[in-house]
Design brief:
The complex is a heterodimer of chains A (430) and B (1086). Helix content of chain A is 21%, strand content 25%. The relative contact order of chain A is 0.17. A six-stranded mixed sheet of chain A has the order 1-12-13-14-16-15. Chain A is an alpha/beta fold. In chain A, strand 12 (306-310) and strand 13 form a beta hairpin. Chain B has 1086 residues and is of the alpha+beta class. The longest helix of chain B is centred in the last third of the chain and has 30 residues, at 1018-1047. Classes of the chains: A alpha/beta (430), B alpha+beta (1086). At the A-B interface, helix 1, strand 5 and helix 5 of A face helix 24, helix 30 and helix 31 of B.
Chain lengths: 430, 1086
């Protein structure tokens, strides 16, 4: 006997995140800002007539004292506490190591709006803690005598248009989202992971559980699959035992992933602790790392950020860096709010390249969100959180914070039918 | 401002105790008055009308500028019904016709003192003071009666007329009066003697008269006689200030009715009037009068379009932009921000951009701006040597005769002259002196060079140091490109130019220069402008003259003597017992040692007794004091010294200022008080130096050598007392040991291991020993060093404790490698080692750290920016006698590309590269950028031997037994890898073949990444590659975004080429490595 696993159509949309033919030839970061401003300005200009029909639109240069107008530009947040690479060279090594704050905000922080023509300091009705460097917005206001721009109102681009949600088929299909396995770290517990695998692949529980497992159509690992002690790699010559220490977690991971790949499709995304490049978009993990699992055609190594469609339901996700960075430089009531903001700003990672490593693209900005996903997830968060947000044009988005599995034992289960989701918790009472 | 840097300021200005057997301070300063005839500087009538016409033509500009004029005068000022109270900032004099109304009895040319200042409402004041006459003294030959005086007068007048034939002055020597005075030199029993006060017509005649009297004059009945003159070297303006009790920057009042409004105003000041010098009321800077008037400070910067390969020259290169920033004293935001540009420039938010089509218009607009805004103080960076002379020379080249009217006197051109300022302390510097009448120039570069010892004085590194801000540095070869671009690129340049105008103001605020310098002027009594343009001695002289005047004493103008006699034994330091002390070391300091000695032993010019007099005068021996150097001085019961009195006043005033500072709440008041106490301290310390300045105003080596000999005695005495008293015999736990003694401090190891115990013993010792000294010499206990690394004399490091529970900081002396010719690696290495040794108490860690660094260096893994050595190119190659690395490199770079090669005046950064065997060091210098781009190997051995080894061994020798063998010759020095240059000749013939990433075996056609042998290690090799790439990416991101931040723009390319910036080379390197990293990863994508 046997229960047939449910199938599902998968379309990868990662192409935009592949560096591929982009070549580095000495370019700087201004191009990506330029591309971003260009894309966003076209968009915002089309919105301004509905937002503030009676005001002229001008550039920073064209500002005149007292003239009310709308300007569009990239925000730059001046932050007093922001760590700077120059400080590494400061003359006086502080005797007492500074306590690293998890957040670098200060009440003196202020925003500056910049376009190609110049920059102007913003004051008035705009709250610095909500914004970060790199966002493009439209502001209404006027230049005050002191040379500031007194903001009256702010417009962000809002949720992007969304492809229609597929007609309800009535059939339950589940996607499992996991992040932060951190194989090889002190918090990782192989048994816990094995339980997860057995559950997904249907090797656990009674027939009911197996039936349920058979409805899982896809597993996505959102970053931090392994943890390689970094200091090992810094030295020049590795001792043989270091080789082992380094490759051991990867080998272990490969074995575990093979078990899943044998049963159902699986996507892996690189995260900050994985053997991948540092800056976003992180390129897919090399298949040579996974000689076992990569031999299955169900195994897909993807980029971070990762975008794909399952039965026409669009997913967009990252391994968490974008939201973690927002958390350092801005303020929100929860992580989901950061996620919502990135959608409204139509930018997956506004702090790249400023505080988030990023490839210096010249022609485009891959993080621009053109189309609204149905499911938007970020990995490696402290706890599982989820919410549905609605856009002004009827867009519905499921936001999910995927917790670190190695620390919480929680994976997230999402139903493609109605984008409802719940936590799958694996606790070991030892 | 941090306390630490303030301390530095103090010590940098205070005269350093001299090294033994050397001349103290040789200030080659000449105090010379210069008579300026008012009508000579003025523009002629027709030129004047030209200027007026010009103004009309540019009416629009005038309207734009007029909103920045000073607040209008209130009615009572206009009606002259109220007195005028103002803070004076500048005092000078001109020669003009004497005032008929105020001085009805006089006629002909006379010196008119001009006082420029600001009222508390912000009105500008020009006060013309009449009736003050230049004079000096000579001692009256014995037996001279009134008749003799009149004969003498005639003879002198005759000689003066001979010497000044061209002069049209009616009477040279106005009068000669007999007065009772006493010379300040040597103890004298009589109260006074007759002196002749010779009053002359014009200030310069003092010098010419002195010359005649020095050389000798034929007198009836007396024959040829020469005279020693007294106070004939006092500048006229200073003479006036002293006689009227005016000190630099104080408030002056003239009551209503005592001044006369000028008929035809000569200046642009709002209030201009004439008055008699006797009607001036000078207020001491206390209470209400210690405040600062809201004077206007202009900070400006100019940009010139240089030609490729040349530093801008006024004969060729136009001035293209002038950025200005005007701030009212005491305000934290500037009042005006504007920039004047040649050709259009896009607007800048918050900045008034004024664009003009011709350079002439730019220059004239600036002149008009200066006149309308009427700044009291002009600041900038290197304005005295570059910006101001450049503007003036440029205008002369363009034949704009009406440009250089920048001062406060109507139609009066600024005067330019070449000067060399040389002083032992500050070195010799050539500069142009531009006199802008009525406005004080305050060049921040000069101040920095004066007050701080820095490795570089570029505006960039100075702002990095004090404001912790990097400045974008646009190379002057790019400036022309920006200028020749569009309104946008010129805007870019304008923003840069504005920043350069803003930074000096920021520095001025941050380092409280206005407060400190005004207070220094008030304390020492000299005009503010003297503080920067002249050395230390005039400050002491001013105080001495003031005090002497009160006491009826006069100061002789002694012939300047050569330096051969000017040697005496300097301060000694106790032999340092080098070592690493892991027990607390208590430091006993003499508070203001040299001033205290002078006070305690009443050392002064007027208490000095010559050996001859000592015999003759029959002074009781109990009233005499023999100093250890063998001089004799009388005690204060017979004659109180003037120097001790000055010092007493300075130190009491300092105590009071410090006490007030504790009370003061208002930050501005605090700034004034802090500036004052600092000025008082510096002044007190410079008195000793004044007496030892052999080419000074009044050298007296008897005093200075006595001071140092007492100093030595005190140190020895302290050592003896400590070691005698604190012994186990006397019931103490351990025998105390003096391990080192500096000029004014003694380091004691009491043997106890707790900081608190050492502090208690230190206090006890200080109190006990102080009791044995003559007051006010006092030994103070201030701090404990624990641990303490004593390397040799004047070189030590330690943790500094003033409280028993926590150390304050790490303190080092003589070890920091602020020296310019060291690379950053040395500095970092030394600092980090000290940190590890002293704070972490981890000696093995420090050793390992050094070994790692050396190993990194030898394996060519060192960050290049750490290896860059920078030297200033002061002259061209031919002028250097010895071949120097940076000069040779500059020559080579010029051959490579003349446009970007360094010019005279630039700083040349270089690294030492591997050269042919036996190549000289100067042949192995290379441009760091070139090295990066071409992968040229560094001469690690050079760095190891010539840069690192000495400073490191110095630190470790007291700690390790075989420091040299351990650190410099261990196994870590064996693995050396040399990267192959990719541009050398042979390389062109090499055939590139892919090798296995794992084992470097040549790969066949079938493999691209690893050989079949290494196939199994693929994952691990990949991890290695990728981790390196990820590190590079992280660096790249951090570095380039930092530069975007400094630049203040996200949407524009970074142009900055500031080689002083610590991340410049790293950024360049990151750029290069990014593409390498990518190609490395690409190899895996098969």
């Amino acid at each position: 006997m046997g229960i047939e696993r449910v199938q599902c159509d998968y379309v990868s949309l990662d192409e935009t995140f592949e560096i591929g033919k982009e070549k580095y030839h000495g370019q700087q970061y201004c191009h990506i800002y330029f591309a971003r401003l260009h894309l966003m300005r076209t968009l915002l200009y089309s919105l301004v007539p509905h937002w503030k029909p009676n005001f002229p639109v001008c550039t920073v240069l064209e500002l005149e004292e007292g003239k009310e107008c709308v300007i569009v530009g990239t925000l730059y947040k001046h932050m007093k506490l922001k760590p700077r690479v120059l400080d590494e060279y400061s003359k006086q090594k502080s005797v007492v190591p500074l306590v690293k704050p998890h957040n670098f905000m200060h009440s003196d922080d202020y925003l500056v709006l910049e376009d190609e023509s110049g920059r102007v300091k913003l004051s008035g009705n705009i709250i610095p803690p909500e914004y970060v460097t790199g966002i493009v917005v439209a502001v209404l206001g006027k230049e005050s005598g002191a040379g500031d721009f007194l903001v009256q109102d702010v417009l962000d681009a809002g949720l992007p248009p969304q492809i229609e949600f597929p007609l309800k088929s009535g059939e339950d299909k589940y996607v499992v989202l996991v992040s932060g396995l951190s194989v090889g770290s002190s918090t990782s517990n192989p048994l816990q992971f094995q339980l997860l695998i057995d559950h997904i692949t249907g090797h656990l529980g009674d027939e009911k559980a197996q039936l349920f497992a058979s409805k899982i159509v896809q597993v996505v690992f959102a970053g931090n699959l392994v943890e390689i002690p970094h200091r090992i790699l810094n030295g020049q010559n590795l001792a043989s035992e270091d080789f082992a220490r380094m490759s051991e977690p990867i080998r272990e991971l490969d074995i575990l992933l093979s078990q899943i790949a044998a049963g159902l499709p699986l996507d892996i995304m690189p995260g900050p602790s994985d053997p991948a490049n540092f800056s976003l978009p992180q390129q897919s993990l090399h298949e040579c790392l996974f000689p076992g699992s990569s031999s299955y055609n169900t195994f897909r190594s993807c980029t971070n950020p990762h975008c794909f469609e399952l039965d026409n339901v669009r997913f967009l996700g990252t391994s968490g860096q974008n939201v973690d960075d927002l958390d350092k430089y801005s303020d929100a009531k929860d992580k989901l709010e950061f996620m919502e903001r990135t959608l409204r700003w139509r930018h997956l990672a506004p702090t790249a390249p400023n505080t988030l490593g990023c490839f210096p693209f010249t022609e485009r900005d891959p993080f621009f969100i053109e189309s609204c996903p149905h499911v938007y997830f970020v990995g490696n968060q402290d706890k599982f959180e989820t919410r549905i947000i609605k856009g002004s044009e009827g867009q519905l988005v499921r936001l999910i914070c995927v917790p670190k599995f190695s620390e919480t034992g929680v994976a997230v289960m999402l139903n493609l039918r109605d984008i409802e989701c719940h936590a799958l918790s694996f606790t070991l009472d030892l | 401002m941090s306390n630490a840097s303030r301390k530095r300021a103090a010590s940098a200005v205070a005269p350093q105790p001299p090294p033994p057997k050397q001349v103290l301070m040789t200030q080659e300063e000449d105090f010379m008055d210069e008579d300026v005839f008012i009508d000579q500087t003025l523009v002629s009538e027709d030129e004047e009308s030209l200027i007026l016409r010009d103004i009309e033509q540019r009416h629009a500009l005038a309207a734009r500028l007029s909103k920045w004029t000073r607040p209008p005068l209130s009615d009572d000022y206009v009606a002259q019904s109220r007195g005028v109270v103002f803070q004076q900032l500048e005092i000078d004099y001109v020669i003009g016709e004497s005032h008929r109304e105020l001085l009805p009895n006089l006629s002909g040319p006379a010196a008119i003192i001009r006082i420029f200042g600001v009222t508390k409402e912000g009105h500008s004041v020009c006060c013309n003071v009449h009736g003050f006459e230049p004079y000096f003294y000579i001692s009256c030959p014995p037996g001279m009666g009134p008749d003799d005086i009149s004969h003498f007068h005639q003879a002198l007048e005759g000689r003066m007329r001979e010497a000044n034939r061209n002069s049209n002055v009616g009477k040279f020597v106005r009068r000669i009066e007999m007065v009772q005075r006493r010379s300040i030199m040597y103890y004298q029993q009589s109260d006074s003697q007759p002196f002749l006060k010779i009053v002359v017509a014009l200030p310069t005649m003092v010098a010419s008269c002195r010359g005649i009297l020095d050389r000798g004059i034929q007198l009836d009945g007396l024959g040829m006689k020469s005279f020693l003159t007294y106070e004939s070297n006092v500048l006229f303006a200073l003479r006036f200030m002293i006689d009227c009790n005016i000190v630099g920057g104080n408030w002056i009042e003239i009551l209503a009715g005592k001044y006369k409004k000028i008929v035809k105003s000569l200046s642009y000041c709002q209030l201009e009037f004439d008055c008699l010098y006797s009607d001036l009321i000078s207020h001491a800077p206390e209470g209400e009068y210690s405040k600062m008037a809201p004077f206007r400070i202009l900070s400006f910067d100019i940009e010139c379009a240089g030609r490729k390969g040349h530093f801008p020259e006024p004969s060729h290169d136009p001035v293209i932009q002038i950025a200005n920033l005007v701030t009212l004293q005491g305000e934290d935001q500037p009042l005006i921000r504007n920039v004047m540009t040649l050709k259009s420039c896009s607007p800048i938010v918050g900045v008034d951009v004024m664009s003009f089509d011709t350079e002439r218009e730019v220059l004239l607009a600036w002149r008009d701006f200066l006149r309308e805004v009427d700044p009291d103080i002009i600041i900038g960076y290197n304005i005295c040597k570059f910006d101001l002379p450049y503007l003036i020379e440029r205008a002369a080249n363009l034949k704009i005769a009406e440009f250089p009217i920048l001062g406060r006197i109507r139609n009066s051109r600024v005067r330019v002259k070449d000067t060399t300022f040389s002083s032992r302390q500050y070195g010799t510097r050539e500069s142009k002196e531009v006199t802008v009448e009525g406005r004080v120039q305050f060049d921040l570069l000069q101040v920095m060079q004066r007050d701080y010892k820095l490795s570089s004085y570029s505006l960039n590194s100075v702002s990095a140091h004090f404001l912790s801000e990097q400045k974008e540095d646009v190379h002057h070869s790019i400036i022309s490109d920006l200028q020749n671009g569009t309104a946008e690129t010129r805007r870019r340049l304008a923003v840069y130019c504005l920043k350069d105008a803003y930074l000096p103001q920021r520095l001025l605020d941050k380092l409280m220069f206005i407060y400190n310098y005004v207070e220094m002027a008030r304390v020492t009594g000299v005009p503010i402008s003297f503080l920067l343009s002249r050395g230390q001695s005039i400050k002491v002289l001013s105080q001495l003259l003031r005090k002497a005047r009160q006491k009826n004493l006069v100061i002789p103008n002694v012939k300047q003597v050569g330096s051969e006699q000017g040697t005496f034994e300097g301060a000694t330091v106790l032999e340092a017992r080098a070592g690493f002390y892991e027990k607390p070391i208590a430091t006993l300091d003499f508070a203001s040692l040299y001033p205290s000695i002078m006070m305690a032993y009443n050392l002064c010019y007027c208490t000095l007794v010559t050996s001859e007099d000592a015999r003759k005068l029959n002074i009781p021996s109990e009233s005499l004091n023999r100093t250890p150097s063998g001089e004799t001085f009388v005690k204060s019961n017979l004659q109180k010294g003037i120097l001790p009195e000055i010092l007493e006043e300075l130190l009491t005033a300092r105590k009071r200022a410090k006490a007030d500072l504790k009370e003061a709440k208002d930050p501005l008041e605090r700034a004034v008080l802090d500036g004052r106490q600092l000025a008082l301290k510096i002044s007190a310390n410079s008195v000793y130096g004044f007496t030892g300045a052999t080419i000074g105003q009044l050298p007296c080596l008897e005093i200075s050598s006595s001071v140092t000999s007492y100093g030595r005695q005190m140190i020895e005495h302290t050592k003896k007392l400590v070691e005698d008293k604190f012994t186990t015999l006397n019931g103490y736990e351990h025998n105390a040991e003096v391990i080192y003694g500096d000029t004014d401090s003694v380091m004691v190891q009491f043997g106890v291991s707790a900081v608190e115990q050492a502090m208690n013993l230190g206090r006890e010792a200080a109190e006990y020993i102080s009791g044995t000294f003559t007051k006010p010499i006092k030994l103070e206990f201030e701090k404990v060093y624990y641990p303490y690394l004593l390397i040799s004399k004047k070189r030590y490091a330690g943790l500094f404790w003033t409280k028993p529970d926590k150390f304050d900081k790490m303190d080092t002396k003589g070890i920091e490698t602020v020296r310019r010719d060291n690379c950053l690696l040395v500095k970092n290495l030394v600092n980090d080692c000290l940190h590890k040794i002293l704070i972490d108490r981890d000696i093995p860690g420090a050793v390992q750290y050094v070994k790692n660094a050396i190993s990194d260096l030898l394996r060519n893994r060192m960050d290049l920016s750490l290896l860059v050595i920078t030297k200033g190119l002061t002259k061209t190659g031919d002028d250097y006698e010895v071949k120097a690395a940076h000069v040779e490199l500059a020559e080579r770079m010029r051959k490579r590309d003349a446009a970007t090669a360094p010019n005279v005046g630039d700083r040349v950064p270089y690294v030492i590269i591997k050269g042919a065997k036996g190549a000289k060091a100067y042949e192995k210098s290379e441009d760091p950028i070139y090295v990066l781009e071409n992968n040229i190997p560094i001469d690690a051995q050079y760095y190891l031997e010539n840069q690192i080894s000495k400073p490191i061994l110095r630190i470790f020798e007291p700690i390790l037994k075989n420091a040299s063998r351990e650190l410099l010759h261990g196994s870590h020095t064996r693995s050396i890898s040399i990267s192959t240059p990719s541009n050398s000749g042979l390389w062109k013939f090499a055939k590139k073949e892919l090798t296995c990433i794992g084992c470097k075996a040549v790969l066949g056609k079938d493999h691209h990444t690893v050989c079949s042998h290494c196939k199994g290690r693929e994952a691990e090799l990949y991890c290695k590659t990728v981790s390196r790439v990820s590190e590079l990416e992280m660096h790249f991101g951090k570095l380039w975004t930092q530069c975007q931040e400094c630049q203040g723009s996200l949407h524009q390319d970074i142009l900055c080429t500031s080689r002083d910036c610590p991340i410049f080379y790293r950024r360049k390197k990151a750029q290069k490595e990014m593409s390498e990293a990518q190609s490395q990863l690409d190899r895996w994508s098969f």
